[in-house]
Fold this protein.
Amino acid sequence: MNRRDASRALAVLPLVAARPAFAQAPAAFRVAWVSTERRGLPSVNLDVFRAGMREAGYVEGRDLVVDVWAGDGSGPRVTEMVPDILRSKPDIIVAAGGLMMGFAGRVAAFSLQHRIPAVDGWAQFAEQGNLMTYGPVLSDVYRRLATHVDRIRKGAKPGDLPVELPTKLEFVINAKTANALGIAIPPGMLVRADVVIR
């Protein structure tokens, strides 16, 4: 498979891509966790997903195997891994996170250097030094994702699963970054924030 074919293969992977049938499911359910995160570093998203699977009754090492495929902050690296991921024959592929999160720290440094405020939809973006975020609570998103994986494991078709909107949103302000950028955050906005990083 050349790079172009690999790119196409990755592009068509939905958030959760599953093998079509589980009539003779293996003893252990194999999940391929694919992200641009860096190998060896803690992953809150992966930890929450694993916790969600445990809540659904799975025991890793007994009836669940989670293979972690990390792109080390590189989208092209993830693309290159696609053939190996497919050869590992996972029962389901969870495409986690986004490329931007892998570069959140660099974006923050660029923002401070050029005094350009940077905002996003994920709290981790603000935690990495960017100005503010407003969006879903990722821990809830990945915990809920685990329930979808469990339903697919039990025979549900991915296309039949309902599209769910996030029910919990959080507003995070990085006050340290605001000060560094010379931005005065209105007191009313600080009061409304779920988290203020000082």
User: Anything to note?
Assistant: Confidence is low (pLDDT under 50) at residues 1-23. The first strand starts at residue 16 and ends at 18. Residues 138-153 form the longest helix (16 residues).
